[in-house]
Amino acid sequence: MSRIREKFNQLKSNRETALISYIMAGYPSEEATLSAVRGLIKGGTDIIELGFPFSDPIADGPTIQMASTESLNKGTKIDNFFSIVKKIRKESDIPLVLMTYTNILYNQTYQKFISRAKQAGIDGLILPDMAIEESKEYVKAAKKNGMDTIFLVSPNTENDRLKKIIKSTSGFLYMVAVFGTTGVQTKIHKYTIDALKNTKNVTKGKIPVGVGFGISTENDVKKYVSSGADAVIVGSANIKIMENTPTNKIQSRIATFTKKLKNKTQ
Amino acid sequence: MKIGMPKDGRFGEFGGKYIPETLAPAIEELERNYLKVRNDKNFKNELGRLLIDYAGRPTPIYFAKNLTKTIGGAKIYLKREDLLHGGAHKINNTLGQALLAKRMGKKRIIAETGAGQHGVATAMACASLGLKAEIYMGYVDTLRQKQNVFRMELLGAKVHAVKSGSKTLKDAINEAMRDWITNVDSTYYLLGSAVGPHPYPLMVRDFQSVIGKEIKKQMKKIPNAVIACVGGGSNAIGTFYPLIDTNTKIIGIEAGGKGVKTKLHSAPLTAGKKGVLHGMMTYLMQDKDGQISETHSISAGLDYPGVGPEHAYLKDKNQVQYKAVTDDEVINAFLILTRTEGIIPALESAHAIAHAIKISKKMKKTESIVVTLSGRGDKDIDIVKEYLAKNVKNKRKI
């Protein structure tokens, strides 16, 4: 069983919801990334989602776009990314998910990239521009390497399509909370809660459902937990903290923030 | 072999729809509605009428006798898309898509633009059909094409200057896609080139194919060669598609910038590698990690790291030859055409002219070349002026 599913099973038996925390590799530096990872682990996050920057992140809002650009400007390459992953693996067994865009994998071939990622210690992949229709070769390569493929669904995904997506999904299903890109939102929409309930009905507990995009506060987390989410995903909020924090304080600030959120999932 | 209807949205292996899930229902809705109007008589009549009365079709085929004489080779004919309303071929596509959007009940139209020609053509189509237009344009492009920004604003469109990434066409597309993801229900994305997820490459090719169909009708015999410039590739695919199964030699010209051996160009078919961007698998300019490269071209309209998937297919099948010409060659062609014929071409179109000049010399006088003059060059005169001031050698030619 994958590290991700094992984590979900363990949380389920404790009646806990998973907290998944996103940060961008290489933003604002490799050292800061590692400090943030330590902070996330210390704060009690369950799964870490590491972004690898892409030059054209169409699913991301201004905060993660900025982090992508900065990371690329600092010279973050795939080799640096895998070296960061290996360093994390020396310290922790926490499930690690890589979020990036299709071209990064396509460029090296799915098989080659995924096999390398798996060896470095990545457990699952999220590609926001990978549509189910185009995913055959990608899913095949992932299966071969024991890599989870975490697909996204949206509040406007119809049930027939949802079922098709679930078939190719492993690890967990990522439900996008809003019509829009990543980034802090001011309110939780009724359509999101309805979509979450519908998705849970369709998945019937076969695969955990995580909700992400726009989640940044303890209240947000509480609301999604009470609406039945198996995981809540927090991203841009972490980047915002890192943007305004000197490297030597990142670990403690991220830990404090994460702990507050994690408390709401228990 | 040409592909009428791409299977699973693909031209051979190229194309597809690599899109965020939120857009999937919108793309499905678009595909369904487009396939419905594609063979609908009423739609075709309505669009046909607009193309004649509003846009000014058919455009002439002009025998450029002075240019031909100056070069001294094959006869050069120009397909005068520059004479269309708005000054470029873009209106063929915007009228088609705006009409479709209207039928779909969408009132808010968004579009990206490079040089501003597609933005202007969108703003015009929207004004005439009573739709609201918002245009995304790279910040760098808003500076080098100020006149078009104001034209769009005069036409009632809202222009957003995009300051992310390289601040050019690709970033304008990124931002338009983000807008579409956010406003997916109310908004129609009116893409301007034969790029993006299926069904856009098909739809844009269909709407632009009027160019090639007219060439076929207007030329007494099929020309020995046809040439068009390729950025995303909409005027080129519209020119080429109806001529693919004929004996004519088809040549697409990419922006070679400062040379395809340097990094400063926009020629993915000549010097790129397969990849995925803006919803499609195609040839892209990218580094060894798969990051999209910043491109360069003297013409904002060709300054794009990707190319329409059908061009990628036609290249791999050897049905179309793709070549690149440099900025210097483009300026030279711009000056020659302007002086010999009194026609100021868009810098984009001057790429095709530059190649025609090159090959016509080697052809017989009885042979003929058709060049699609995709747009007029009024928008580019400041760029040319600046270029000439920096490059004294060219200046002497005036």
Keywords:
heterodimer, A: 266 residues, alpha/beta, 9-stranded parallel sheet, 9 strands, 14% strand, B: 398 residues, 6-stranded mixed sheet, 4-stranded parallel sheet, 14 strands, 17% strand, globular
If helices are DSSP runs of H or I spanning 4 or more residues, what is the number of helices of chain B?
Answer: 17
Question: Regions of chain A with pLDDT < 50 over 5+ consecutive residues?
Answer: none
In what range is the share of β-strand residues of chain B?
A: 15-25%
Q: Tell me the β content of chain A.
A: 5-15%
* Overall 3D shape of chain B: globular
Mean pLDDT of chain A: 97
For the biggest sheet of chain A, the summary is:
9 strands, parallel
Question: Based on helices, strands and strand pairing, what is the structural class of chain A?
Answer: alpha/beta
Rg of chain B, rounded, reads: 19 Å
Which stretches of chain B are low in confidence, meaning pLDDT under 50 for 5 or more residues running?
none
How does this structure look, described?
- The complex is a heterodimer of chains A (266) and B (398).
- With 266 residues, chain A is α/β, with parallel strands linked by helices.
- Helices cover 51% and strands 14% of the residues of chain A.
- Chain A is built from 12 helices and 9 strands.
- A 9-stranded parallel β-sheet of chain A has the order 5-4-3-2-1-9-8-7-6.
- The longest helix of chain A has 17 residues, at 247-263.
- The mean pLDDT of chain A is 97.
- With 398 residues, chain B is of the alpha/beta class.
- Chain B has 17 helices and 14 strands.
- In chain B, the strands form 4 sheets. Chain B has a 6-stranded mixed β-sheet, sandwiched between helices.
- The A-B interface holds A 54-59, 61, 65, 69, 72, 77-78, 101-108, 128-131, 133-134, 151-154, 156-158, 161, 165, 176, 179-181 and B 8-9, 16-22, 24-25, 164-165, 170-171, 174, 177-178, 181-185, 273-279, 281, 284, 286, 288-292.
